[in-house]
Amino acid sequence: MYVRVRRGVALMGLGLLLVSVHAASAQKAGRSDAPSPGPPAALPPGEYSMDSDRVVEAVARGEGPQALAYFERVAAQAEQQGQRLIAARGLQAAALAALDQALFP
Prior knowledge:
mainly alpha
């Protein structure tokens, strides 16, 4: 019986591996007609982009506390409105800003 369980687990693992490889190759194939990202849009004063690179840049410019407060505010407002994806991105940006400030004061 133990051999059956191990064989079943091994087959499931192999199946998941094959599915993930197929999904990854399909994503790469679909990217050829996607527009290339342009330069970042200018945001109004007091607002920050939630892109990881832009978060790190804001902290490097010395705007870490302001960016952190902005990301926490955006996340709280989005969560109240039921926009979970925006709330998650805001919390991720807030965590990155806090970590970057702690590591590189």
